[in-house]
Write a structure and sequence with these properties.
Chain B: InterPro entries: DUF4198. Chain B: This is Putative GH25 family protein. Chain B: Keywords: Signal. The complex is a heterodimer. Chain A is mainly β. In chain A, 9% of the residues lie in helices and 37% in strands. The radius of gyration of chain A is 15 Å and the shape is globular. Chain A starts with a strand and ends with a strand. By secondary structure, chain B is mainly β. Chain B has one helix and 19 strands. Chain B is globular, with a radius of gyration of 21 Å. The chains are: A mainly beta, B mainly beta.
Chain lengths: 160, 297
């Protein structure tokens, strides 16, 4: 599996600079799936404070460019847990958050600077004519790492 | 099969047939209840049937359907068609928030006798007749051949002074479904203060199988305590049990629902009281029906 780094998005880079050097990075693997009709999945990652409070979307990969009668945003609701936890209130595209769908591979995404505490990083993937999966990784900010893996639509998700 | 077994089987079959037919369920089934953005339509099926959501009996008349946008303005029913077993129509969801789609039927129904002859009150069961469960009689339905059609008067005012055995009930039957573009809006659940009304605490569009649903019911604007509510998931063909629940609201009028499976649910509340507005009516029948989408966690 080839290791890729996210193409830098201006605001993402800015966020990275604002965060102390110890800022965590999440690594997300989009698995290769051998099916006759493959479409790159919509994938979203967000942080949920364990103590309750608003979810913070870290990244969302969807068909950014598709407009017209059926814009790419139409299928964002298929990321059903994220949609319910706050996706439906988010204005998209959002700088440093929105990105195009990714081909199978492993991607590094810097986590935003958030107040210290217990969080769960959730990564949800939904694929056209395919399945949907949600992976949860509990983390402590600062310093905490963690890892989990999906079984079908997502591979390894780890925080360093 | 020997004769004895055949007789037992026949008896069992006979008793199954003789149990009272379950009230048919009236339902509106939107293609989805959750939309991203405001460039979409929902397409809604409307039917009356026993099993949910198999259209195998009778369509709902789409002319009765009204649509309200989240801001309270009236929306449009488009491309309506009445098919043999169901009707179908589209609604353009072009504003963010929760849309209300459905119907309210109000009316008087009952009977009286004049010189031993039975008369019925109501508009022949259409547009204002219909029972709480959504009975929708068609022409000459269930009438044995050769029996004369019952005589009708449309209003209570036409009941003659010499009428006896007057049995008259008022009905307010509501059937609404909710479709949300982007974030749901609690303000879409407007209270009129009349009849049986639905005030969700967990908003449709946010319902998930591993979280309890909480819905408040109001009668004439006040919490409806001890109200009986049926909660039935669809797609029973693919399970052994119907998984229907009969639940009651608490003193605060709130119903707490645990969802056995993800899916589309039919929810129906009925009650009767004596708070009639028509002096000749002895009973008021109130009902509220909806279909709720409960997603997998």
């Amino acid at each position: 599996m080839n290791l890729k780094t996210l193409p830098s998005i201006p605001l993402l880079a800015a966020t990275t600079m604002a965060v102390p050097a110890a800022a965590a990075t999440v690594s997300v693997t989009v698995p290769r799936i051998n099916v006759a009709e493959y479409h790159k999945p919509y994938v979203v990652g967000w942080l949920e404070p364990v103590a309750g409070g608003e979810a913070k979307t870290v990244f969302v990969w969807y068909d950014l460019k598709k407009g017209g009668r059926e814009p790419g945003t139409k299928w964002l609701a298929d990321l059903r847990t994220w949609w319910r936890k706050g996706g439906r209130s988010l204005k998209l595209p959002a700088d440093g958050v929105s990105g195009a769908t990714r081909a199978p591979g492993t991607y590094q995404i810097p986590l935003p600077n958030v107040p210290a505490g217990q969080y769960v990083l959730k990564v949800e993937a939904a694929r056209e004519t395919g399945g949907r999966e949600l992976v949860s990784v509990p983390i402590t900010v600062p310093r905490g790492g963690g890892a989990a893996s999906g079984k079908t639509e997502l591979g390894a998700v780890s925080i360093r | 099969m020997n004769i004895r077994h055949a007789l037992i089987a026949a008896a069992a079959f006979g008793s199954a047939l003789s149990t009272p037919a379950m009230a048919h369920r009236q339902w509106l089934l939107p293609s989805t209840t959750t939309l991203a953005g405001t460039s979409e339509y929902v397409t809604v099926d409307g039917a009356v049937s026993n099993d949910l959501f198999y259209a195998d009996h009778f369509p709902i008349d789409p002319a009765q359907i009204k649509v309200w946008a989240p801001d309270g303005t009236e929306g449009q029913v488009e491309n309506a068609a009445t098919l043999r077993y169901r009707s179908t129509f589209d609604v353009k969801i072009d504003k963010p928030g929760t849309w209300v789609i459905g119907m309210e039927r109000t009316g008087l129904m009952g009977s009286f006798k004049v010189n031993g002859e039975t008369w019925r009150v109501g508009n022949r069961g259409r547009n204002g007749g219909g029972g709480a469960g959504g009975r929708m009689p068609g022409p000459a339905m269930n009438r044995p051949a050769g029996e004369a059609a019952p005589k009708f008067v449309a209003t209570a005012a036409e009941i003659p002074a010499n009428a006896t055995d007057v049995k008259l009930s008022e009905t307010i039957a509501r059937n609404y479904v909710y479709v949300t573009a982007d974030a749901p809006t609690a303000a879409s659940y407007r209270v009129t203060g009349k009849g049986l009304e639905f005030q969700p605490i967990t908003l449709p569009g946010s319902l998930v199988a591993d979280e309890e649903g909480q819905f408040r019911f109001l009668v004439d604007g006040k919490p409806a305590a001890g109200l009986t509510v049926a909660v039935v998931p669809g797609a029973k063909k693919y399970r052994e049990a119907e998984d229907a629940q009969e639940l009651k609201t608490g003193a605060d009028g709130v119903l707490h629902v645990k969802w056995p499976v993800p899916g589309m649910y039919w929810l129906n509340a009925t009650t009767t009281d004596v708070k009639t507005t028509e002096p000749k009516a002895t009973e008021r029948r109130l009902s509220f029906t909806t279909v709720l989408e409960v997603v997998a966690p």
